[in-house]
Every structure is written in C-alpha cells, then in structure tokens.
Amino acid sequence: MELSKVTLEIFSKLEQKWLSHCETTKKTRILSIDGGGTTGIVAGTALIRLQDQIRLQTGDPHAQIVDFFDIIVGTGIGALLAALITADDGSGRPLYTATDAVDIITQRNSELYKPKPAGIFRRHRRFSARSMDSALKEVFQKKEDGGMLTLKDTCKPLLIPCFDLKSSAPFVFSRADASESPSFNFELWKVCRATTATPSLFKPFELTSVDGKTSCTAVDGGLVMNNPTAAAVTHVLHNKRDFPSVNSVEDLLVLSLGNGPSGRDPCPDGKCSTSSVVNIVLDGVSETIDQMLGNAFCWNRMDYIRIQAFGLGSEGTTEEEEDVLKERGVESLPFGGKRLLTVTNGQRIDSFVQSLIASGKTSLPPSPCKESTVNPLADGR
Predict the structure, then answer these.
(1) Of 3, 49, 63, 201, whose Cβ has the fewest other Cβ atoms within 10 Å?
(2) Contacts of 190 (CB under 8 A, 6+ apart)
(3) Would you tell me how many other CB atoms lie within 10 Å of the CB of residue 270?
(4) What are phi and psi of 253, to 5 degrees?
C-alpha cells in the first residue's frame, strides 16, 4: 500500500509538471519588423513603446523585448533593429535594448547611409558600401574578444531574408540553420548588409558563411519579403524541433511592425524610375502579406496585430514619433479591404503587451553557443 501511495504521488507530480508545459493558453510569440526607408521611425517608435510597456506592466525596469518573444524576424532596416535587440552580450542577455538600437540607427545614420559623391554619369543617389560596412562591423563586435557576432550569437531565434542573385531565389538567414551547421552560420553584420542592399542604393553584396562553404550574392530582402511575418509564421509552423507545440495559427501571438509607406506618389506624371518601382514592390509585398495574415487570423484577430503609420513618409523625423503612436490603427478585413479603428497605435501596443505578460516569459534556450555551458539541472534545485 505504501509503495502504491508513493507511486501515485510521483505520477501525480509528473502529470502536473507535464500539464504546466502544455497549457492551452501558452502561445508562441512572433515579432516581425518590416523593411523600408533608412530611419525606421515607425518600427523604432513602436519598439520603444513596446519595451517601455513591458517594463511598466511587469514592474521590472530591466525587462527586455526578447524576454517575451520566441522568435524575431526583420527585413532591411527592420532586420538591423531585429539583429541589434537579439545580439548576445556573451552571457545570454541582449547586447542592446530597444532604445539602444534606435539610438544607434539615429546617431549613426549618416555612416550607415552615407551618400556617394555625385558622378558625371550617375543620375540616382547611391550610398557608400564602405561606410556602412565599417559601422555595422563596429556595432556587431563581441565585447569580450573583439570578434564578430554571428547568427548563433543571438538570444532568441532570428530570421532575416535577402534575395540571392546566384540562385535567383530568396535566401533566409536563420539561427536554426546556423546552429545545425557552420555552413549556414554568417556574421551578423554581413547578414544585415545583405538584406539592406537595395539595388537602387547599393551594389549587390557578396558574402560567405563562417566556414566558407556557402556563398550568396545578395540584394534587398524587401524585394520578396519586405513584410517578413509570413516567413516567420511558416518557419514556426514547420520547425518542430524548436516549436513542438505549434500546430496552427491558433497557437501563435504575432506583432507585425510596419515602417510607413514608401511615398504618396511613386510615379508622378505616369513616369516610374527604378527607385519608384522598388518602392511599389516594397509597399505591395507588405500590404499583401498583411491581407493574407488578416485572413488567417480572422477568427482570432487579437492574436495578430499590425502597427503601421500611413500619415508619414519613410524618411520621417524624430519629431514625428508621437504622431506614429497617436495615429489610429488600421486593420485588414478578411478577404479584402481595411477598416480604421477607434484605438491608436500606442493603445494597440499597450493592449498587446497585456497578452504577452499573461503568457509569461519565454522558455526557449539562449543562443546555441551558450547551451554547452548551461547546466540543465540548474533550475531544478
């Protein structure tokens, strides 16, 4: 009888522990950041509001965005923001806060996007690749030894797309792939350069993996995935190793941050330049993905939130930050159309944070580089 009682207690505790890891309310959280522009004012403003609300609602002044998201994805300027807030400081914590990331882009914008001297035959503005390379190498440098951070050196899974001219197909940089093989592990600064190589502004960017076995001739990921949310959703649904509990969109909680429209009149007088066509592609891809996800989440709309500011240009100034948060939100309707909401972008972010906090902190492991040094029994004492 005593043995049966002990056995019952053991199985009861094991059952409770198992159920605690299989709560139906636990959702996988995705943060997606659009490309577009060189300032990232919309996404940057939303990220700071997101961080501030997480700290306010948790009462933890040191809480970070990565503590409450399971995967982060970005394209172009959005990829730079995503990489900055997920970069590992060497101890499993983010190297930069959201505020730090926005400050880096704001304060170093003239280095990241330094105009080249105009030439006799050059009709369109281009930026200096050398200046951007130097700035990116500096911000993605390891503090402990001065080496370069790679995809594996991130606090949470990271996805960043580009378009590979060699294969004429999209190429998605992924921490999941990087942890599987050094042939898919790339230095973070190169990843950010690849996804920001807009054809009208930069030449294609050549990069190789850390072991030199995989190469890519990259142009802007925004040409195919300016809004990378769909790539993140697809990745999570099919990556059972990292996300075994995700079976459908009902298991997801998604925040998608836009970066404003590329321009009000991309083709004045019916004449479209190369840069105008690029802008049309960027906006069109973003809005198409938003519409698709609006359809997918039509039965659970509160689990998919899209923050966009249509009243600003892509080159907005810091004085417009409050306007981003005060602008009324827009929601895609199932099977076409949009509706203007009564709540503002700021209020939508605040409400979304409540759902994040209710789900608790993420339980995913830190970067793969740290896993070998972590004692799996440390939390069980």
Answers:
(1) 3
(2) 205, 207
(3) 5
(4) -130, 115
Cα–Cα dist 1/42, whole Å:
66
Assess contact for 229 and 279: CB atoms under 8 A: no
Residue of 34, 220, 290, 303 with catalytic role: 220
Q: Which pLDDT tens digit goes with each residue over 328-361?
A: 888 888 777 888 889 999 999 999 999 999 888 8
**CA-CA distances (angstroms) from residue 352 to 102, 152, 254, 285, 355?**
21, 29, 9, 24, 5
Give the contacts of 350 (CB within 8 A, at least 6 positions apart).
49, 53
Per the CB < 8 A criterion, the answer to whether 307 and 42 are in contact is: yes
Alpha-carbon distance of 43 to 36, in angstroms, equals 10
The rounded distance, in Å, linking the Cα atoms of 333 and 339 is 7
CA 364 to each of CA 202, 282, 352, 361: distance values in angstroms, whole numbers, following the listed order:
36, 32, 21, 9
- Among 58-62, 64-68, 122-126, 146-150, the range scoring the smallest mean pLDDT is 122-126
Question: Between helices 98-107 and 41-58, what is the axis angle to 10°?
Answer: 160
Helix then strand then coil, in percent of the chain rounded to 5, is 45, 15, 40
Amino acid letter, 174: S
pLDDT in tens, 256-301: 999 887 665 667 666 777 667 767 777 778 888 999 999 999 888 8
Rg over alpha carbons for the chain, rounded to the nearest Å, is 22
CA 287 to chain centre: 17
Helices (H), the chain: 2-20, 41-58, 77-86, 98-107, 109-112, 129-139, 175-180, 188-195, 222-225, 229-238, 274-296, 321-326, 345-359, 368-371
- Residue 34 a catalytic site member: no
Place of tokens 């970067």: 367
Burial of 347 (0-12, 13-18, 19+ CB in 10 A): middle
pTM, entire model: 0.86
Give the pairing type, strands 215-219 and 205-208: antiparallel
Share of the chain above pLDDT 90, in %: 58
